[in-house]
Write a sequence for this structure.
């Protein structure tokens, strides 16, 4: 209410389904906003990727504490089966999967001597050890600084400079005293990044492969303060050929909040077998929901209406939501069989289906958010500086580009670092970058695995082995143990 009194325009609150509500509506039903931040990020990613020509995307939102991933096969997917703190949220929200891997995730050795990363986080206070605010435990940010992907000279927010000495001291906690050397710290840093990447890779596999989507058919949109640092390596693991980094990845959720439609959802519980229903009866149910929408939106707005049905096989305890379009109930049932086969790798066309809930999504789009266009340049992109970074098994000088100086049409090859105030992008060897008309970075994997210098992509010196267990995961071998200095990661 205080904000509404002082703002000249209408105050909107983002919902977990990606839409927005008036502040009074959100106050009446605050549960609708519980995952609003991650949802706004997915909305913003869809907007930016669409402007760059990518309709099918996977989103990677990596912050300081966690990473949120989602799949958008043309539009964000929604679910009614999400949980927060193990409590179910019985309302549609954007289907987002979260793991405890972020820039502040703490790396440690467990009782067996195996390397772990997260879910415990250093947060913003004290933050990573390199912040020089009292943190002493190694984090993913400390590892990226040690690898040269982050700068120790650039001042964040004009005041904070990352301290590489403190990062090295923190990484020493993972090493036995006799192994504490610059090379060993780099090896430890590479291991920390590899384990963090494994957590995120597993999350990306959950929302793509385990739900029937081939990640190779999607572009990966990387945002959040840390997402662009890890995106290309994750894309390689999933054989994704294109990564899109928005112009301002660190604040993309704010753009998504501006782009969200004024959205309301209406439901009617039916719990009726399809055989007992008709298109006419469903039409009457949807008509009543449409009347409620017309009343709520009033004469000043004409919402776009999208009818949906929650269907399941009789006897199941979970549903899938499918559109109800001109093909009627029969078409919805066929769509349900296809969706079930895609999601669960089987369907039963001969089995009876029941309608659990009829839904109506009513939305009024907000005014379009204009995305600024960049002027084109025929000049080659010029790096602002260079610094040493770990590339494969070697330490080498890599160019550092100031993103604010890049223009549309410019291209360059990795390895390279692209810096800006809200995020840093790591472009590995074997990848190239192009700047599009809307200032998005389009990163593409070279199919030959070679960069501009013709060198083949080198695997990190720290070798990663996935050892299957009876739980389908991998175990981690001790970082401190073994003459060959190998470790395994969750995969």
């Amino acid at each position: 209410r205080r904000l509404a009194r002082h703002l000249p325009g209408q105050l909107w609150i983002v919902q977990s389904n990606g839409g927005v509500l008036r502040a009074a509506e959100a106050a009446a039903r605050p549960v609708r906003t519980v995952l609003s931040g991650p949802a706004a990020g997915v909305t913003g990613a869809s907007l930016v990727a669409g402007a760059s020509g990518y309709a099918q995307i996977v989103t990677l939102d990596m912050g300081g504490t966690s990473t949120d991933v989602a799949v958008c096969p043309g539009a964000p997917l929604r679910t009614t089966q999400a949980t927060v703190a193990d409590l179910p949220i019985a309302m549609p929200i954007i289907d987002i999967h979260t793991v405890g891997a972020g820039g502040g995730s703490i790396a440690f050795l467990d009782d067996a001597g195996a390397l772990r990363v997260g879910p415990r986080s250093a947060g913003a206070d004290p933050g990573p050890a390199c912040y020089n605010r009292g943190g002493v435990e190694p984090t993913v940010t400390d590892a990226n600084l040690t690898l040269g992907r982050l700068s120790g000279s650039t001042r964040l927010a004009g005041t904070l400079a990352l301290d590489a000495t403190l990062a090295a001291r923190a990484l020493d906690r993972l090493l036995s005293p006799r192994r504490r050397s610059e090379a060993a710290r780099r090896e430890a840093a590479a291991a920390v990044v590899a384990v963090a990447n494994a957590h995120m890779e597993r999350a990306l596999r959950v929302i793509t492969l385990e739900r029937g989507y081939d990640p190779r058919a999607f572009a990966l949109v990387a945002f959040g303060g840390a997402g662009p640092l890890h995106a290309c390596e994750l894309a390689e693991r999933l054989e994704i050929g294109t990564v899109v980094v928005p112009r301002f990845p660190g604040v993309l959720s704010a753009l998504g909040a501006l782009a969200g439609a004024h959205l309301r959802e209406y439901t009617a519980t039916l719990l009726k077998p399809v055989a007992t229903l008709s298109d006419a009866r469903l039409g009457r149910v949807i008509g009543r929901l449409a009347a409620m929408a017309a009343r709520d939106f009033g004469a000043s707005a004409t919402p776009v209406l999208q009818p949906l049905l929650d269907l399941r096989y009789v006897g199941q305890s979970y549903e899938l939501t499918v559109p109800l379009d001109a093909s009627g109930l029969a078409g919805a049932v066929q769509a349900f069989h296809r969706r079930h086969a895609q999601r669960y790798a089987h369907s039963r066309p001969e089995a009876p289906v029941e309608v659990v809930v009829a839904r109506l999504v009513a939305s009024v789009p907000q005014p379009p958010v204009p995305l600024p266009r960049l002027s084109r340049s025929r000049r080659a992109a010029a790096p602002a500086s260079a610094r040493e970074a770990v590339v494969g098994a070697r330490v080498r000088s890599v160019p550092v580009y100031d993103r604010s100086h890049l223009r549309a049409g410019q291209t360059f090859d990795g390895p390279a670092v692209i810096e800006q105030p809200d995020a840093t992008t790591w472009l590995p060897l074997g990848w190239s970058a192009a700047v599009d008309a809307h200032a998005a970075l389009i990163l593409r994997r070279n199919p030959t695995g070679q960069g501009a210098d013709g060198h083949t992509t080198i695997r990190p010196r720290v070798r990663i082995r996935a050892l299957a267990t009876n739980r389908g995961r991998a175990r981690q071998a001790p970082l401190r143990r073994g003459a060959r200095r190998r470790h395994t990661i969750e995969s």
About this structure: The two ends are 47 Å apart (CA to CA). The CA atoms of residues 172 and 180 lie 6 Å apart. The chain has ten helices and 28 strands.
